[in-house]
Design goal:
This protein is of the alpha/beta class and 140 residues long. It has two domains: 45 residues, Roll (2,3-Dihydroxybiphenyl 1,2-Dioxygenase, domain 1), CATH 3.10.180; 76 residues, 2,3-Dihydroxybiphenyl 1,2-Dioxygenase, domain 1, CATH 3.10.180.10. Helices cover 31% and strands 28% of the residues. It is built from five helices and eight strands. The protein has a four-stranded mixed β-sheet, with helices on one face. Strands 5-8-7-6 form a four-stranded mixed β-sheet, covered by helices on one side. A hairpin with a 3-residue loop joins strand 2 and strand 3. The longest helix has 12 residues.
């Protein structure tokens, strides 16, 4: 397929380990090709390239991957799996063990925020959270 857009993630020699790690977390995921420099993989149908580029560049939260979750069980799953060995932050953000930032968010958040009367209460509720709690957001 020509003109396909996909992210290239720069690792310090850990591209294959990262690809294997992510593929173990996301269902319907696989490594599609690899060589000493590049590992191509798919997570739930989305293509990624892992590059063993060396220590020059590091990941920052300026780029993050968003996972919308329909249930609290899904939020809990991704929060625990991706956060293992990483760092948790406010409002559903975490950095995994490789330094990549993820946002684990409830799919219902957009709907809750679209209600002008409810939105300030929802914002107040989630600003106090690290991991999102769907029930607390719906109760706000």
């Amino acid at each position: 397929m020509t003109n396909q857009i996909y992210p290239c993630l720069w690792f310090d020699g850990q591209a294959k380990a990262a690809a294997e790690y992510y593929c173990s977390i996301f269902k319907d995921s696989k490594i599609t090709s690899e060589n000493p420099i590049v590992v191509n993989f798919e997570l739930k149908g989305t293509r990624f390239m892992g590059l063993n580029g060396g220590p020059k560049y590091k990941f920052t939260p300026a780029t993050s991957f968003v996972i919308e979750c329909d249930t609290q069980v899904e939020i809990d799953y991704y929060w625990e799996k991706l956060g293992e060995g990483g760092r948790f932050d406010q409002c559903g953000w975490l950095d995994d063990q490789f330094g990549i930032s993820w946002q684990i968010v409830p799919a219902v958040l957009g709907k809750l925020m679209a209600d002008p009367e409810r939105a300030p209460r929802v914002i107040e509720a989630f600003m106090k959270m690290t991991k999102f709690n769907i029930q607390e957001l719906e109760n706000a």
